[in-house]
Amino acid sequence: MHALRQDLRGRVRDIMAYLRMLRFIERAGGSVSISVRSGSSFQIEQSTIHVLKAGVFLHLYNLVESTVTAGMKRIAEEIKVNGIQFNDLDSRWQRAWASSLGKMDKDLTPENRLKAALELCQAVVDGIALEIEPKFSVGNLDDTRIESIAKRYGVDLA
Predict the structure, then answer these.
(1) Quick one: pLDDT band at residue 76, thresholds 50, 70, 90?
(2) Per-residue pLDDT for 80 more than 70?
(3) 113: exposed, middle or buried (C-beta count within 10 Å: 0-12, 13-18, 19+)?
(4) Which of 53, 96, 112, 115 ranks highest by number of CB atoms within 10 Å?
């Protein structure tokens, strides 16, 4: 959890530095000249500033998405590291593990489906260390998808 918080704080610092840079440009009248070593300069114009401001939302989105993804992966890692048994898992995490190991997300032939089911049963009987790979599907994580993922894995969003 400490590493997750550290990463979050680092990203927040980056966003704050970005916002300070934007504030500096705005206070400079919206037009700043940046000199480069060759002696030439580049003029930052108002239209460029609007693009830079839009970048703040991208940074914030990346912050939220990476935090949610890292948090879910951290929970899965804790399950593995602490050797939590199948019976001790919440039913939602049991489903996530069974879905992954049982290849439920793959289109299998009846023979391969039976094979996957038997491997799943054997793993539960053997009490193997559970490795869970949380599924986030494809595409961007918006607030609705984040809430859906949290609900699917039994994570309370406060």
Answers:
(1) confident
(2) yes
(3) middle
(4) 96
Q: Band of the pLDDT at 143, cuts 50, 70, 90?
A: confident
Amino acid found at 152 = R
Q: Which of 17, 26, 59 is nearest to 44 (CA)?
A: 26
HSE-CB of 127 using CA atoms within 13 angstroms: 6
